């Protein structure tokens, strides 16, 4: 047990409806001040095995539960989340350093929405029926089995429930392995699900490191689906571990997304969209970190951007006036700083920031904007996952599209333009899972979500989630009467 921000959090695993400890533990550190906040059970192969066994046992009964009953339970979990928004927000902020105001207003309500949405979507899933020469085809969405869900630290509970909710809705049982830098809210979710009446073993939480608990889970032959959100190198390791079992995978990975600003854009809107990319201290997979601006307005854009960005308040994420909190962890901070230092060495010039926030110390990194990075340099091609943007200019639409697509990623792209015909032309040519025009992060859970190229494999959301989490079956019935 740990007491975090006044909330009691169980630091053990949650397996088969029971709290299970481990001989080993790891220390969870708050990014706010780098102080330890909890000692967490450090699971490995034994805990992964126990959780898959519990989930396998719970599967047949949960899979047979009526869709209405599953939907009812998911709504009850959503109600439990709603009741505990403040506690969840406080604990998540202590654990991953993201803003308390975002957790309260946006993230935790979205967690509840993840459950409500997939509960409702389950009830209206289409079961196609069609005829072939008098034979009836009936498509059904059968539960697949045990799902291993591996999630990152940048939006821990939001990204975990984006998987847990559809997996459970589909009639599967799940083993969730949250990121070791932000393990706490997954444990609170286990409490909430149990209080809501979810059967034992339907949701299991195994804590621990990726290379230990995570690796054991994804290699387990009893697992029928792996859904992973995280980095490209980890995705490769997981895909290799899944290969011998041919376990189906859904991978939501990193990005180096562009924001294209055309001269015909509303420049105030474009500046707003650009500054928004520092949200969550830049630790957002979808962030449009490459600002591509039409040369004729680049001077004006830069001036307005700097005026706006200089007003951003950096500090304690529990403070309501704070816009930018800390980086998640010392190791991540050092990685961000390494990328910034090498960018400077490569010849890029920081128009804003360019290093740690030495006034605040700790894990606070200054929002940074680079210009003049040489073509092909690391800062233009590697995902930083910190508050670091680059600015480049283009002269023609053709050039803008080529620059936007000049990346091995393809998660998202955003454009600001006042011309609907240009918007249509450009969006058609962009390689990205999501394209936003004159807006950013507007999310409808019915929509497919995922990445092209190395930003991922597959899509989740609406039918796409059920397509992944189900064994879709077609039954062909001959006519009964001659
Ligand atoms: N596309 C999206 O939806 C999305 C959303 C958020 C974050 N991300 C990406 O996630 C990355 C940042 O997250 P991160 O640093 O936590 O990623 P990460 O890949 O280091 O870790 C993610 C998870 O994988 C686990 N893991 C690590 N090694 C493993 C292994 N061998 N087997 C099984 N599990 C293992 C970790 O413990 C953690 O739970 C960024 O690249 C970001 O773009 C993508
Ligand atoms: O940092 C990545 C954020 C991803 C967002 C979603 O997965 C979502 O909105 O469902």
UniProtKB/TrEMBL annotation:
Keywords: Oxidoreductase. The keyword Zinc does not apply. SUPFAM superfamilies: ALDH-like. InterPro entries: Ald_DH/histidinol_DH, Ald_DH_C, Ald_DH_CS_CYS, Ald_DH_CS_GLU, Ald_DH_N, Aldehyde_DH_dom. Residues 25-474 form the Aldehyde dehydrogenase domain. The active site is at residue 252. GO terms for molecular function: oxidoreductase activity, acting on the aldehyde or oxo group of donors, NAD or NADP as acceptor. PANTHER family: ALDEHYDE DEHYDROGENASE-RELATED (PTHR11699). Belongs to the aldehyde dehydrogenase family. This is Aldehyde dehydrogenase. It comes from Actinomadura rudentiformis. The lineage of its organism: Bacteria, Bacillati, Actinomycetota, Actinomycetes, Streptosporangiales.
